[in-house]
Amino acid sequence: MADDEWKAEVVWSYDNVFIGSDTSGHSIVYDSNEGVMKGIGPMRAVLTSLGACTAMDIVAILKKRKQKLTSLKVLVKGDRPKYGLPKPWTAVQVKYVLTGEKLQKKYVEEAIRDSTEKYCSVGASLKAKVTHTYEIVD
Prior knowledge:
By secondary structure, this protein is an alpha+beta fold. Helix content is 31%, strand content 36%.
């Protein structure tokens, strides 16, 4: 595969700092959990990618259902083995905190279900068991 056919690249900057970028020119700074701490760790980036992926689905689905969402926060945490390598996510918990005008529970539940079962490619890419909860804040 030629270099221009790749969809993303990661380039070492210094120490444990790396710059990841895509073909559109967007970038993210990665770092380990040790040292200079200039960016997000790769494993936490997986969690934030999952949160962003499903959040985009939720916003789009609720908009189609004419729900007036005013804010959405997605909290993501996971469990990993303490010892041994590799240390993949063995379980991931996702909590949605939604605020809006008269959000209907059935549409929120539908949006979460459709995101997790049909649309979110990041979630589908994870082998960990991913669970979801939500909270509507008035």
